[in-house]
């Protein structure tokens, strides 16, 4: 690809401070952008007030800065983009692709993650939707919806979206759903490469489908393994992943490089943060990243002595 047409991004949700697992995703997307002489944008996905922690967005910005991960341009806050999400929803509605769904949680639980299209008979905003009954808005998938994803790390995968069914674009609590906001903003920001954790692998075909429906070009995707604890669970706030220690910035970065398949030379132990990031940018190769869905600290490559 032509130099400088590369635009990457990191898109954390401000549900807590960054931990080692989120640093891994930030670092991988940063290095891939810098190694391709590209831009690296920062987007704060603050569309879920019930899950947000006051002050977390500012803390994330500070943590990235401490680790030398300096982003290009202004930070995009999704909370400032509500009118754009509403416009896109209307566009999809006009194309006859949406319907209101008032299935309650108890019913959805019985479906085991595969929505059966029970509310398809309704169309969004139609008389069949009672305005006082809380409802979500779903996109109606075509009869057959198989999406091929050529992932830069995990290889080619084919997803049958019919297996999980029509998905939600607008939540019953009147907030835009992650799939809609994320796809639209990847398009809006001109993102060419999405490098993120493999926990979002299932989202990528949905986002690709949505982008096709909105006639927006799809980015290339690269899903890195997520960092798990020894019990095999993804590090997250729910399982009490510790906040990054800001007095150990260098070792945080070196640990993440080891998890991304680097054998780092021992001189880097005494190097400055910009020197470490420069070294990693020069040696960055997606093919070094293990094409796994998970890694644990014990999978880390060792430092060369
Ligand atoms: N905001 C999402 C998260 O923090 C990531 C979104 C993305 O990278 O697409 O899990």
- Give the CATH H-level superfamily of the domain at 7-80 and 224-299: HUPs
pLDDT average, as an integer?
A: 93
Look up the CATH topology of the domain at 7-80 and 224-299. Answer: Rossmann fold
Using the 3D structure, state the CATH architecture of the domain at 7-80 and 224-299: 3-Layer(aba) Sandwich
Low-confidence stretches: none
Characterize the quaternary organization of these chains: single chain
The total of beta strands comes to 12
Largest sheet: 3 strands, parallel
Question: How are the strands ordered across the major sheet?
Answer: 1-2-3
**Series of secondary-structure elements, N-terminal to C-terminal:** EHEHEHEHEEEEHEHEEHHE
Kindly provide the name of the CATH class of the domain at 7-80 and 224-299. Answer: Alpha Beta
Shape: elongated
The Cα radius of gyration reads 20 Å
Structure description:
This protein has 305 residues and is an alpha/beta fold. It is built from 8 helices and 12 strands. It has a domain of 150 residues: 3-Layer(aba) Sandwich (Rossmann fold). The strands form 5 sheets. Strands 1-2-3 form a 3-stranded parallel beta sheet, with helices on one face. The protein has a 3-stranded antiparallel beta sheet with strand order 4-5-8. Strands 6-7 form a two-stranded antiparallel sheet. α2 links the parallel β2 and β3. The longest helix has 16 residues. It is elongated. The protein starts with 6 loop residues before the first strand and ends in a 9-residue tail after the last strand. The model has no long low-confidence stretch (mean pLDDT 93).
């Amino acid at each position: 690809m032509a130099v400088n047409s590369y635009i990457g991004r990191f898109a954390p949700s401000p549900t807590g401070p960054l931990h080692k697992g989120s640093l891994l995703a930030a670092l991988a997307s940063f290095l891939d952008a810098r190694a391709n002489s590209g831009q690296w944008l920062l987007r704060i996905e603050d569309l879920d007030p019930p899950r947000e922690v006051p002050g977390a967005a500012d803390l994330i910005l500070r943590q990235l800065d401490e680790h030398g991960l300096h982003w290009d341009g202004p930070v995009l806050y999704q909370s400032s983009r509500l009118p754009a999400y509403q416009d896109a929803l209307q566009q999809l509605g006009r194309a006859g692709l949406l319907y209101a769904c008032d299935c309650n949680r108890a019913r959805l639980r019985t479906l085991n993650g595969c929505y059966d299209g029970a509310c398809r008979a309704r169309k969004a905003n139609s008389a069949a939707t009672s305005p006082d009954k809380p409802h979500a808005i779903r996109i109606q998938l075509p009869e057959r919806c198989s999406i091929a994803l050529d992932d830069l790390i995990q290889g080619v995968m084919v997803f049958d979206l019919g297996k999980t069914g029509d998905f939600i674009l607008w939540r019953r609590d009147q907030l835009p759903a992650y799939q809609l906001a994320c796809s639209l903003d990847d398009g809006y920001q001109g993102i060419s490469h999405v490098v993120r954790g493999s926990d979002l692998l299932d989202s990528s075909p949905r986002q690709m489908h949505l982008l096709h429906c909105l006639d927006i070009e799809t980015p290339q995707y690269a899903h890195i393994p997520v960092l798990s604890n020894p019990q095999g669970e993804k590090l997250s706030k729910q399982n009490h992943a510790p906040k990054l220690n800001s007095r150990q910035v260098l070792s945080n970065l070196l640990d993440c490089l080891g998890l991304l398949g680097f054998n780092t030379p021992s001189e880097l132990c005494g190097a400055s943060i910009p020197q470490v990031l420069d070294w990693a940018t020069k040696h960055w190769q997606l093919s070094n990243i293990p094409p796994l869905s998970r890694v644990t600290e014990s999978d880390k490559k060792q430092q060369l002595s």
